[in-house]
Design a protein that fits this description.
Largest sheet: none
Strand content: under 5%
Number of helices: 1
Number of strands: 0
Structural class: mainly alpha
Distance between the termini: 35 Å
Order of helices and strands: H
């Protein structure tokens, strides 16, 4: 989904975020978004591992 945005769309999104939140708040928001994405990926990986483990037990 993100790959369909393209560079101009990404620049537009960043510009809008800069206007809305300001330059002082933007790094904090970026850090929080990065941590959230990291936790989401970790949870998804754990869930995938659990599903694989369960399917191996059933065999």
């Amino acid at each position: 989904m993100l790959s369909s945005i393209g560079i101009p769309g990404l620049i537009l999104i960043l510009t809008i975020a800069l206007v809305i939140f300001g330059p002082k708040k933007l790094p904090e928001i970026g850090k929080a978004a990065g941590q959230t994405l990291k936790e989401f990926k970790s949870s998804a990986r754990d869930l995938t591992d659990d599903v694989k483990e369960d399917s191996d037990v059933k065999k």
